[in-house]
Structure formats: C-alpha cells, structure tokens
Amino acid sequence: MSLSARHIGYFRFMLMTASLLFLLVLSGCKTWPDDDPIPQPELAGTYVGAGNIGGGLTNVLMQITGPDSAGALSGAIRYRSVITSFSSLLQDSTGDTLRFRYLRNSTVYRAWVYVGAAGLTVHFEEPDDIPAFRLNREVDGYNLSGLWVGPMTSSSAQEERAATMDMDQQGQSFYGTVDVSFYRTLQFHLTSGAASVASFEMSGILTIGTTDYPAFFSGQYYAPDTVHGYWQAGSSGEVDHGEYLYFRSFE
Questions:
Q1: Closest Cα partner for 55 from 88, 112, 104, 123?
Q2: Distance (Å, rounded) from C-alpha 50 to C-alpha 63?
Q3: CB 185, CB 165: distance < 8 Å
Q4: pTM recorded for the entire structure
Q5: Which pairs with CB-CB distance under 8 Å and at least 24 residues apart come from 165-173?
Q6: Which of 6, 21, 55, 136 has its C-alpha lying 20 to 30 A from 242's C-alpha?
Q7: Could you give the CA distance from residue 144 to residue 165 in angstroms, rounded to a whole number?
C-alpha cells in the first residue's frame, strides 16, 4: 500500500519536530561554564601574616615549594626566631585544602589550610588552642600583612614617636590600623590601597575627637621587612603630616 502525499508530508513534519526537540534537549543540558575546570591558584610561594601561636600574637611566614617530579610539596614555617620544615605537606584532590605537620620543642603541630586566591587560612587541629589565622601571598616578594613597629614623625608636634601598624593585605585589598601618640593618641583606620612591586599607598581615616579626617600613607620597601614613607591627615595634609620607618620582625 503506497502512502499518499499528505501522509508523507505529515511524517516529514513529525520527523523534523522530533529532531528539533532532540537538539533543544541537548543544548539545554549543556552547561558551558562547567566544561572548563576552574583553575586553582598557584600554590608555591611565600605567605605572611600574624597568628596567635607559640605564646601570643606574632608574625608568621610560610613557604611552599613544589610540586617536584613526583608531585610532592614541601615547605616550612617561621615564627619566634625559628624556621621549621614540615615533616608532611599534602594537598587534597580539589586543590583547595592543604594539610601539614611539624615537630617543634617536642610538640606535634598539625593543621589544615584553606587555599584562597590571595592567601591561606590556617586551622590548627593540634594543639587545638591556636585560633585560626590568615597568611597572605607575597607578590614579587612583597606583602604588608603582619605587625610592624618603628619611628613616626609629626609636623604639628615637631617630634618623633614609636608607632605600630597591624595590616592585612590581600592582593590589592588593605585593611589595618596605625597607632601612635603625639599630642594625643592617634589611630588611623586604613581601608583601601594599591601596591606595585616595591611601592604602595594606603588610605582611610584619622578620627580626632568626633571628627574624621581623610588619611593617606605612601611608601616603599627598603627590604621585604622594612618600609619607609610619608603620611598625611586632611585633604592636603593640613591637619598633620610626617614620615615613618616601620620594621616587621619574626624574632
């Protein structure tokens, strides 16, 4: 029995419709952003910050090297005048978690580490009384994270005083404080900034009484742990201005 032209046209229409639906289902199932794996940040490098470890808040430096030809990582941690190599350093299959272990003064230290784009968040499991802390990646050998001390001058007070800076630098994000006592105790809150190799600038506010004044710091590194620069309070430094020389110690 032969098919009529009407039946043939109907079957052709149904075949085209089924093919179109099949293609739509395929395109709907495809998730283009998931086809390419999300690249993990480069892990090897040096990370710096401050942590409450070994008897109080102190500067901490961690270095990670590798992987070697066998895929193994190695590294060391430095704080309170001692550099200790990890006895083990492992990365999980997702790439965003590390685990390390080391022995120091007959005490076993074990921690897991979350790996972020700008640095590491360290969580100690043993001893279990160490609060979690951040270590931020050095870029070109530089990062301001940690505790700094050193002299700072004031044009208004015509004197030099010891100052402290507590800074958290995550890439091009800055958050920290500078404390110094001239004619009164001053605290600068720095909330933004930028860095380019050995030069940097940071800005925020200085509160005197009930008034907030814009504050600005610019500087450069003499060495990875020594910075020098100039500061000002007020739009053009009319409130006060001066110099500073800060040092970061791992002793």
A1: 104
A2: 15
A3: no
A4: 0.82
A5: 165/246, 166/50, 168/49, 168/134, 168/136, 169/136, 169/143, 169/144, 169/145, 169/193, 169/195, 170/118, 170/119, 170/134, 170/136, 170/145, 171/117, 171/118, 171/136, 171/137, 171/139, 173/118
A6: 136
A7: 10
Q: Can you give the pLDDT at residue 183?
A: 86
Q: Which DSSP symbol is given to 140?
A: T
Cα 120 to Cα 133: distance, rounded to the nearest angstrom: 8
**Model pLDDT for residues 77-99, shown as the tens digit of each residue:** 999 999 999 999 999 988 899 99
Give the pLDDT confidence of 140-197 residue by residue, as tens digits.
999 999 999 999 999 999 999 999 999 999 999 999 999 999 988 999 999 999 999 9
Exposed/middle/buried for 164, CB within 10 Å: 0-12, 13-18, 19+?
middle
DSSP output for 177-236: EEEEESSSEEEEEEEEEEEETTEEEEEEEEEETTEEEEEEEEEEEEETTEEEEEEEESTT
Q: Do the beta carbons of residue 128 and residue 146 sit within 8 Å?
A: no
- List pLDDT tens digits, range 109-125: 999 999 999 999 999 99
Token reading at 62: 């961690």
The single residue listed with the structure tokens 């700008």 is 118
**Which residues contact residue 69 at a Cβ distance below 8 angstroms, ignoring those fewer than 6 apart?**
none
Q: Which two tokens stand for residue 80?
A: 């309170």
Q: Amino acid identity, residue 32?
A: W
Q: What's the distance, CA 113 to chain centroid?
A: 13
Only one residue has tokens 């004044």, namely: 213
35-80 pLDDT, tens digit each? 444 455 679 999 999 999 988 999 999 999 999 988 899 999 999 9
